[in-house]
Amino acid sequence: MSYIKEYAEKLITAKEAANMVKSGDWIDYGWTSATTAAVDKELAARAEELENVNVRGGILMWEPEIFKVENVADHFTWNSWHMSGFERRAAANGFAYYCPVKYSELPRYYRENIKHVDIAIFQVAPMDKHGFFNFGPNASHMMAVCEVSDVVIVEVNENMPRCLGGFEEAVHISDVDYIVEGENPAMAELGAGAPPTDVDKAVAQLIVEEIPNGACLQLGIGGMPNTVGAMIAESDLKDLGVHTEMYVDAFVDIARAGKINGSKKALDRGRQVYAFGAGTKKLYDYLDNNPECMSAPVDYTNSASTVSKIDNFISINNAVDIDLFGQVSSESSGTRQISGAGGQLDFVEGAYLSKGGKSFICLSSTFKKKDGTVSSRIRPTLIPGSTVTDTRANTMYVVTEFGKVNLKGMSTWQRAEALISIAHPDFRDELIKEAEKMKIWRRSNK
Predict the structure, then answer these.
(1) What does the alpha-carbon distance between residue 310 and residue 341 come to, in Å, rounded to a whole number?
(2) How far apart (Å, rounded) are the C-alpha atoms in residues 231 and 442?
(3) Which residue numbers are catalytic?
(4) Residue 193 within any structural domain of the chain
(5) pLDDT tens-digit profile of 243-296?
């Protein structure tokens, strides 16, 4: 049978796809920019007929229609692998929940722990001449989802970039049950946010001066990593490589500035490797059919074993706060889930295992609360209920606008002293008093 004929036989409408969902089903909605759009609308229209439908997804870039139905919690429950603003609001409204995850293990979770999904529905690029539907910039864990789903429905979007890879970046029509020709929405964009602040620039400068020529970069999401990227693009650095969880606009700028060639990488030489990408149109256009960029599953990109084989690996990520023991919380504030663990711990571990590798946790020294008061992000202990994303044993470099410290090999009193030295001056005396109470203070720089 030709692929064209098979395509025609599997073609259904979005409404027909939505009608396959039953009460009690577990549905996978895809990931980031691959989240279903056309079928989502039709499923929302059926809300009153359904109850207890569990839906998995993550990093939503727009609000799904199922979130907007009346009494949504009676019909749908959202289960997120990594929360965006849309998901945080849904959690506050009582119908979304976070799934604790070590991101590098997510494909295995599906294959060995979840084992069964009733229906997977997600957006893909148009079928190529070989019968493959490319996952776009969302390889991540999508092949594992397909493998454990009873029904696989792809929603074709002609605007989805075709992201080349090495493996598990596309699903073949023979493994697809139904095809929906979607409404071809433009790719959802994720901007870099507000212009960099003076704090962002100060932190970025402290990190950039630690990066050698030939280093391999991993950047997290957020203002500070983006500012680091902008500074690298304007620097004299050369022969840089990329091996990252998330491909962001900053990498495009660095590449176009001629800083990236991947010539020093021991693995995937010359390729920019990533598990998923999200950004502006500039990013999607750059990734489309670009053989320099390699879309790969997250159990490869985020594996500490993989990262450890790449010399001079530089990992740069944000944090919510850190305590005087060196415990980093990057995903929650107390019990309020903000985002997710993602791959931060994966890269913190992997970078340290890399010859010449360094991991950086960057954060502003303070933040302003809603009532206008200012608090320190360096705390005696984490807020009760806060999730420890990186344990104190894993944390390497910590950077604020007041300096950087490397906690590896330090005792508790050394850590307290080092972290207080990069806290905002207005909070240092208070932090010293708390460190004394906790018996972790011995000032050496008297």
Answers:
(1) 23
(2) 37
(3) 245
(4) no
(5) 999 999 999 999 999 999 999 999 999 999 999 999 999 999 999 999 999 999
**446 pLDDT exceeds 60?**
no
Can you spell out the DSSP letters for 50-111? --SEEEEE-S-SS--GGGGSTTGGGTEEEEESS--HHHHHHHHTTSEEE----GGGHHHIII
Structural domain range at position 373: 198-437
* Pair 136, 236 in one domain: no
Quick check: is 130 in a domain?
yes
Asked if residues 56 and 27 have their Cβ atoms less than 8 Å apart, the reply is yes
Looking at 181, 214, 247, which one is the last position of a domain? 181
Contact by Cβ (8 Å): 396, 407: yes
Predicted structure pTM score: 0.95
CA dist 22 and 17 (Å) reads 11
Number of domains composing the chain: 2
Tell me: the pLDDT tens digits for 173-183? 999 999 999 89
Of the candidates 105, 346, 101, 102, the one whose C-alpha atom is nearest the C-alpha of residue 243 is: 346
Claim to verify: residue 101 and residue 176 sit in the same structural domain: yes
pLDDT digits (tens, 9 = 90+) for 148-207: 999 999 999 999 999 999 899 999 999 999 999 989 999 999 876 678 889 999 999 999
Per the listing, tokens 């790969």 go with 296
d(C-alpha 282, C-alpha 301), whole Å: 23
If pLDDT is split at 50, 70 and 90, which confidence band does 21 have? very high
| Owner of token pair 């203002």 | 223
Residue 79 sits in a domain whose CATH number is 3.40.1080.10
